[in-house]
Amino acid sequence: MSDTIQNAIDYLQETRDNMLEDYKQLLRFPSIGADPAHNADVKACAEWIVTELRALGFENCEAVATGGHPVVYGEWLRAGADKPTVLVYAHYDVQPVDPLPLWDSEPFTGTIRAGRMYARGASDNKAGVWGNLKTFEALLRANGELPVNVKIMFEGEEESGSPSIETFVATNKERLSADVLLNCDGDLQPDAPQLVYAGRGIVSAEVRVTGPSADIHSGLYGGIVQNPLHVTGKIIGSLHDEAGRVCLPGYYDALQEASPGEKARIAAGFDAEALRENAGVAQFWGEGLAPAAERATVYPTLDINGMWGGYQGPGSKTIIPAEAGFKVTMRLAPDQDPTVVSQQLKMHIESFASETVQVECNIGEEAWYFQLDMDGPWLEAVQSAIAATFGQRAQLVRTGGSIPILGVFNRLIGLPITAFAYGHGEGIHSPNEYLDIDSFCSGLEAGVRLYHNLGAVS
Amino acid sequence: MSDTIQNAIDYLQETRDNMLEDYKQLLRFPSIGADPAHNADVKACAEWIVTELRALGFENCEAVATGGHPVVYGEWLRAGADKPTVLVYAHYDVQPVDPLPLWDSEPFTGTIRAGRMYARGASDNKAGVWGNLKTFEALLRANGELPVNVKIMFEGEEESGSPSIETFVATNKERLSADVLLNCDGDLQPDAPQLVYAGRGIVSAEVRVTGPSADIHSGLYGGIVQNPLHVTGKIIGSLHDEAGRVCLPGYYDALQEASPGEKARIAAGFDAEALRENAGVAQFWGEGLAPAAERATVYPTLDINGMWGGYQGPGSKTIIPAEAGFKVTMRLAPDQDPTVVSQQLKMHIESFASETVQVECNIGEEAWYFQLDMDGPWLEAVQSAIAATFGQRAQLVRTGGSIPILGVFNRLIGLPITAFAYGHGEGIHSPNEYLDIDSFCSGLEAGVRLYHNLGAVS
């Protein structure tokens, strides 16, 4: 069996340069799922992956239509009935790229500089897609087979909050049946491997505040017509108190204090100084509510992600704008029900409506928190592969981010979840996103060991 | 002398169609002074007007360079030393056109529909430029001379708050010396002629709030990094109380109660229902501070004209944005010193800076209120021309808008000011701006009478 592993690893090393060149093909698709202008690009990206899966010998490969972007499905089930079936999750959609001027190279041309592959999605999460394809290729070319049964589910709406995935999973339960879900959306640093074992839920919303029927002259109407931007400021200003607490009635009702063991695990996986430096801020905010490690991971938050209204160009334009708006996301603690929280938000925001302005809060995504299966054999299979490759087991860390699909599997299907990631990157959701190439290549070797280990679970 | 008038009026009626066609040439210049992308268009517009003035026989015509956009100057001084010299003011720059999709025809192609000329600037204030050119043309072609000495000063920065005009006036006192300043920036409705006799001062500013060094992931940093958009909301929300009062310390200190006579004049010139309907709002705002007529004209205001920050595209983008900003203008009451008020604004806004966000408030324009010469012969010359043309004298109304140049002449030169306007329009500063063509043509006739009357002032 160790020959199986070594053969695949030899194959990976021999084909490294081609592998990187080929990765650029995947990176070239501007698969920005949140922007309808890129719908065709998202679809083309899905179809390209389907073609790759077919070329590997996967069966029933399909870009499965959903209400939104397709889910890439494919299966390799020839390992035998005594072997586990692993449902592999990653996502091929990417974040928008703006502000474009801050990119040092084109975001949709994979560009190698100083051992890094720069592109939007190079790390988040086309590395998860490409890592799996290349791991399977290595195992199949070297040994003619995979050590486990595999089902692929690569999503195209992760960055938009996975609006279609709940329906997709509910209507494809048979097709997706498996023994474990392997989440490959993440990051793995060889020097200090970490695995995300839990994340926050999320609620997103978009708010629109409207007043006069058109932009009107602020000299002629200033003082008598209420300005929607003033109301928008009042709303945004009302969402936090001075301490940083979210001011929605009932918002913290479901909040449970983490256990002492969980608090210790969170603290151990939290590098405050590195985060502060990455963010480029002099100091953190919200101190006093909870320790920073918990505020960033398990404590609920509310952030305005964008806002707009009126004239934004150079110089001045003396108007009372007809409308304003903003986008908001909340990160939810365990047990915070997203459908309850979203109504708390909507009621609070719409309470600012009056005879003089209209206020509309439209809820977008609503997703639960998630947590890996911590006690079964699956996490051990991952940890062994990481230890064999990097000389140490992964530290288990809690993220403040969200993976809506995992909440769906946790609550809808009850499927155990485990996680792995191919390589390390930075700049996800920011300009100059990159994937560290050496870490990705050792991630592929760890991937070979991981699937081997999963095949040994009985 | 009445032949003089009739000859000119006959000329205007005979040349009406050509005059409208030719007006489209002036409307074609996208002279958006506030947008540096249109600098060349503004300059080209100024030079086109200079050429027109020369063709009329004006002398020393020049697009005079300033620190910003040129001032169009020209003079016709052959009426004789016993005749008054009138310094004529209008502006050829226009407001930006966004939101462009709301325009029913191209904003920089003069389009005639149902007796209206649609274009950005058709009313505000290329009608003032074109009206004077055509009045002079009629008088010169019909009678070979003008009844008064005329100096032209057409500005290119009115919509940007006239940043260069104070210096221009101060350094060109000799060239601009005159007996009266005639302001032609305004609107005149034949059925119910009104003249603006006073307006508010103005202060503008742009605010920038910065936090993290780049947009960062709101899942990973939410709860520990302060969001500049939240602070922006707090700032905007702090600028008014619930009643609509501006919450800057000292803001109302210089405010003087208008005299009973002035209050009556303001009320008589104020059509609340028409304004409410034009604005498209169910009811006014700020009731309780002062009567609506005064809030819209003589009472000071503060309006956010635009704001921005983070992701504004379709869908969602889960970031804490690196920065946010907004534009603000304040309309000032008589005796409110703009340099004092601007510091009140700056101090209040920058007090929101902290260890976690930077806040910068940059003051733009600072202009005093203005008031026409109410007791001299100049206003009577205007009123007689209006009465002879429209069968009634103009109602004197106070505007809530600002004409920074008039504040400069009021305070810097002490020159008496009077005012006239060519025609009626709507949609100024909004999509689908238009000029009513019949009213413009009768405005030209009134203009002929006005210059005749001014020539009779001794």
Q: Any idea what the radius of gyration of chain A is?
A: 23 Å
As an assembly, this protein is homodimer
How many alpha or pi helices of chain A? 15
The most extensive contact between chains is:
A-B, 101 and 101 residues
Average pLDDT across residues of chain A? Answer: 95
End-to-end CA span of chain A: 16 Å
Q: Roughly what fraction of the amino acids of chain A lie in strands?
A: 15-25%
Q: Could you say which overall geometry of chain A the principal axes of the C-alpha atoms support?
A: globular
Strand order of the largest sheet of chain A: 1-2-6-3-7-17
Percent in helix of chain A: 25-40%
Runs of chain A in which pLDDT lies below 50 for 5 or more consecutive residues are none
DSSP summary, beta strand count of chain A? 19
Q: Strand count, sense and closure of the main sheet of chain A?
A: 6 strands, mixed
The secondary-structure class of chain A comes to alpha+beta
Would you write up a description of this structure?
Two copies of one chain form a homodimer. The model of chain A has no long low-confidence stretch (mean pLDDT 95). Chain A has helices spanning 2-14, 16-27, 39-56, 126-143, 165-171, 173-176, 218-221, 228-238, 260-268, 272-279, 292-295, 338-350, 377-390, 404-413, 437-456, and strands at 59-64, 71-76, 85-91, 111-113, 116-118, 149-155, 180-183, 194-199, 201-210, 216-217, 301-310, 319-320, 323-332, 358-367, 370-371, 395-398, 417-419, 425-426, 434-436. Chain A starts with a helix and ends with a helix. In chain A, strands 1-2-6-3-7-17 form a six-stranded mixed β-sheet, with helices on both faces. Chain A has a four-stranded antiparallel β-sheet with strand order 4-5-19-18. Chain A is an alpha+beta fold and 458 residues long. Strand 11 (301-310) of chain A pairs antiparallel with strand 11 (301-310) of chain B, so a sheet runs across the interface.
